[in-house]
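subagent[fold] <- orchestrator: predict structure for attached chain, return tokens only, no commentary.
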Amino acid sequence: MHIFHKMRLILDIGNTLYKLAVYDRDDMVFHTSVNHFKPNDFLRLEEEYNIESVIVSSVRNGDGELMNLMSRKQA
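subagent[fold] -> orchestrator:
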């Protein structure tokens, strides 16, 4: 388990990939690109990295459950 300060998740939802990065202040501590990013994936990242806020960019509609879950953390 990682011990970090309050983290920020940056999520870019594209047409084919979800691109994620977790920042501890100015330092990127995690990044990946995945085909799917579901609410349980967010909850796992939130717990592992102590996510305090989220910035989302999206070119598609949908992902309602995921967006609702993350909206409580919007920066």
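orchestrator: received. Logging for downstream: The beta strands are 7-13, 18-24, 27-34, 51-58. The longest strand covers residues 27-34.
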